[in-house]
Write a structure and sequence with these properties.
binds adenosine-5'-diphosphate; 15 helices; six-stranded antiparallel barrel; 38% helix; binds magnesium ion; Rossmann fold; 498 residues; Elongation Factor Tu (Ef-tu), domain 3
Amino acid sequence: MKTIGYVIGEASPSYASFISKTIPKLGEYVVLEYDNKKVLGIVRSVIMGSISLSEDIHDPAIVEKIRSLEGKRDHYIKGIIKILGDVNSFEIPRTPPPPATEVKRADSYTLQQVFSKKEKGLRIGVLASNPEVPVYIDVNRMVSRHLAILAITGAGKSNTVAVISEGLLKLGGAALIFDMHSEYIDARFKNGEVNPIYPRLNPLNLHVSELLRLMNIDSKAYKQEYYFRKALNKTIQLINKGQVDRDQFFVALEKVLSKFIKSEEKRKDVGTILSVRNKLEALLDKYGSLMDLKAPPVVSQIKLGYVNVVDLGSLDEEACDVVVSHFLRTLLYSRKSYKSRGKGLPFPLFIVIEEAHILAPKDRTTLAKYWISRIAREGRKFGLGLCLVSQRPKALDPDTLSQANNMIVLRLVEPSDQRYVQQASETLSEDLLEQLSSLNIGEAIILGLMVRIPAIVKIDKFEGKLSGGDIDIVGEWKKCSDRFLEVEKMYNDVVEDW
Ligand SMILES: Nc1ncnc2c1ncn2[C@@H]1O[C@H](COP(=O)(O)OP(=O)(O)O)[C@@H](O)[C@H]1O
Ligand SMILES: [Mg+2]
């Protein structure tokens, strides 16, 4: 390894100043050897200065004179190194590097030792500073300690999700993506396939809170809720007794409500019960295609070795909330039941939630938020990993975000978003934070237990096909106007013939 400088002045176990022979690059990795340790550091700041050309020179003629005497050699280069940890143990050493310790440019071999551990890992990209060094993330730690992917729109979040999914396929794993914009449903992967899941919910499997949300009965409408619950219980009783066929669930529910309306004792609440019945009809109008009395339990549709994609593209926010909540609730129960009784989903799952700030918002309650936070807290024990994806981190529920022990933060510009992310993460240091707004597309800071040391990474470009991305607006206009001209010509021809 090439020596580029020496430690000078006062050093601490985590920072050291050095004087350099060449101009080191910001973000370059260096190695310091002391106390029988090989320690990795990163160049955090570089300054170039001059003793003879000090700041209190007020006459350019003096500079010209010194220039002619000294040439251009009159300068020094100093830098500050942040010590990242021992190359083998990844612990921060307890002692500072002594003065005159050699500062060496880290070679690829050393960097690969740190960032390229392939075992149980997936390749996410390369070091931005050293593109010859691939970066692998530890999949066990990613799934068991959750992940947040945060960045402004267009910075590369969906691409990252696709690269991770491809890596999971390669390891024979399984992902479940809640696809809010139908981006992944037609994706093509090299190591496996998409298992498309078009959400069909069996109302008999829905929780009463899920039905209430779809009917737009909120918790303040307690009388409506009371009558709905009563009617639902009665209908289920009738089904259980065999007096009503399961296929007739909605018809029976409506009949029970109509009976309530006619009954003498409930006369004073007729208005309320009528509202409930109207809301039931509205539910069938609006979400009839989502409901299917023959739909199998959602968990049975999830396959190992596939990227399972739930297509939510055509659903509104309420319906997305119900679908996600229903999947997460049943998944958590299913994994718990598998662990205790051997019945349920038999494999761990990595669950990707796009638009996480809508499903788990900071200042509103949603059904999905409750189950997202439950899985964030309990998922580790049952092999359910969450991946929260968001372009508005500060609108995300802070408790849930802080459960994500791993982060991939791509370009993030707004200072309030940056601060919010920093509060949720123990490892996003001030100097890394400063880099967030200057990252290019696809460049990310990767933090947390899934990497040994925080790193700035150029994420791989997903090689398969993804249907999101940016639309070529001008191109589409041109295509349409060409077609329009064709139609116009045809029309003119016809008119002429006539
Ligand atoms: N790592 C990368 N390398 C090259 N191009 C990328 C990378 N990440 C994203 N892109 C490109 O940038 C565009 C936006 O990426 P996307 O993942 O859809 O962003 P986001 O989901 O954050 O809005 C896409 O056209 C994509 O191909
Ligand atoms: Mg996206």
